[in-house]
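PT: before anyone asks, these are the final sequences, not the draft ones from last week. 787 residues across everything. Please model them as a single complex and drop the result in this thread when it's through.
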Amino acid sequence: MIIEPRMLGSQKLLGAPLHRLSGHTHRHIVRAWLMAASVMGLIGIVLYGRAALWVLLTCVAAAVGVDTICSLLSRNRTPGRTERAALTGLLLGLTFPATIPWAVATFGAVVSILIGQVVFQGTLQPALVGRVVAQFVFSGYLSLGGALAYSPVLTPGHVLMGDIRSAERVADYRGWIESQESTTFEAYELERPVQILRRFAVSQVEPDGDLRYTPLIRDLLPPWEDTIFGVVPGGIGETCTVGLIIVGLYLIHRGFLRWQLPLTVLASAAFALSILPVEIARDYRWFPALEFEQDRAVGMAYILYHLTSGQLMLTAFLLAGDVTASPMRVHGQILYAAGIGVIAVFMRLYGVLDGECYWAVLIMNAFVTTIDRQIRRPVLGT
Amino acid sequence: MSLLSRYLGPKQAFEGGLFLPDQKAEYARQPIETLPVDGPLHVPLSHMADWSVEPVVRVGDRVLHGSLLSEPSGSAGLPVHSPVSGRVTAFSRAWTPYDGLVPCVTIEPDERNEVLSSRHGFENESVIVQLARHGVMCQSPRAALHEYLHAAIARGVGDLIINAMETEPYLAADLRTVVEEPGRIVDTACELADALGVVRAIIAVPFRHRRVVRRLNSEAEGRGVEIVALADVYPQCSPVLLVKSLLDREIPPGGAPLDVGVVVLPLSSIRSAAHALLDDRPVTHAVMTVAGDAIRQPGVFRVAIGTPIERLANRLGLASPMHQVVFGGPLTGVSVDNLSTVVTSECTGALFFKSRESVSPVPCIRCGWCVEDCPIGIAPTDFLKSESRSAASAMVLLQADACID
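LR: through. Structure below.
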């Protein structure tokens, strides 16, 4: 809609004619995001093989197809609409594990567009709307509370071209590179790090004498550098922390994501994790960050594992910062991001639902209107 | 640059604003050059379209540089003087950038450029009478400078701010003026401060030009004029934000600096006033930036009033066919589509561009940068919610009034 001055009863011409422009339009924003998401998609294809490629392609194709049908039916051909649908499909694909069948991917993409984009107009992050609805409908494939505890990741010798369905559980898993000789299959089947951390939070990991955190870090979790490079099982775009930080920095550099938002998501999550108690041997211990065992800062390691083991990084850098679904001002975004971090940690430690970070984003999306109304600048001179 | 300026530079008194690419480095070091007159001039007989004027010359008269061409016939108005010596050949109408068609007189220059000797050099006149006699205009607000000063005295102002913040891209005329004649600017500021009877006189200059600030400081030492360096963020040149930054007073929406007891004068008026007060010469030339990507030799020039922009562009070398001419800055200026538009005393810049840039309206995606960057806190997204006047809430109407652009 173009504002005409007489509509508002002001003699002033609103929006003086700017003769020189920066050249940036909303299409540039969507394209930059699409580029960032594509990089994560490529990394996912390297880590999870052809299956990941098919999931991503199905999501994008279904999203673009449904969006095209909608735009034809409603005769609403907004420029940039197709790019936005593709971005939604791609982000949705990044949250899925590579092992899901095509029907789940298609269903998620259709729901994302029809409900997230058309009905809610993007006020809830549309990709996540599709993700959580698919999680309910196909709870066998997308764990609704730990049903998908084990999932595969390709071995070092079979990245990119390997078949993720040829997977085997490795009895004595020592790390992605180190365990290469112990399997003849193309993929390891491992317990997802997030799942291990959730089990730990509800006292399902037995302490080793006085040592409470050491068994978790020494015996169960993969090496920390594996979670940094993403060679652990999980969603297609969830695991590779390095890649997510790089694409996030790219978006920040372009000015299409404010640095305060991902930083606050991670900082608030770390803050909540360092305080909230963990149940170990029927004993609630507050302030896990302060735990030391055998002169090792195991509490800090525990928090770092939480931050890098999946979902939280993807949420912080790509999902939470969606321009339409997040608050408009920086102060509002900080509040929103803090909410996401704390709710995600709460749900991870004490909740039963899987995909806790996605739920946290959707919950905070519901508060965006309120946040925007509260965080308002006073007009100069009033 | 922006991050460094934001944290190491002077404190900014308002949120938002933009650090724009300023585009002036190419010619900001060249001195102001006077362009000789090389063709007939169409001098507008009136500075503003609603002033009634009476010409005092007839067709065939010979005029000198500085001789009177027209006088105001009503109570409001300013006299107009000839920028060149020559012969009056016709009376017609000319396009001006801010007023449209106004009556003009065409002067065919003779190459001699004889200057009318100053008659009033030793007369004991007040500052305000001298400004009126020499035809000094004020650009913002658009008024005769002496009338604006009268209004200011009647309202009882306490502060005078001289606005040398040229934060729009391309424009460099004010910067060159401060570099070349800092002493005259300070002298004139003192004169005007005395005439107004203000308590404080402040010259606001961009923080980035440190040497200019230092030079002005040394000129102003002990003169009762303060030099304040402000951040180079874009709408800092707006009077509303200057008053907020320098005096921490907020002008109510739709109001003027006079409402809070401040006079804000643009540096271009001070430049003309210096000419009138210190040299006793009428305003016959405009100091303006001629730039843009279609011009081969951009720079700051002293251009005779009444020069058609087409001749100006041809003289400075048109690199390619131009598609847009903007008078003033690229963000707040006016675009003209008539190449016979003439330069008036209010022109501070003429920008010639190869292409015309525009955006087609697209739906808002709530990226929020407009809300963040607006210097006075308007939320443009609120306007989208009010599709009709009845739906526009009081708050939205208030915001519309508060807009400074």
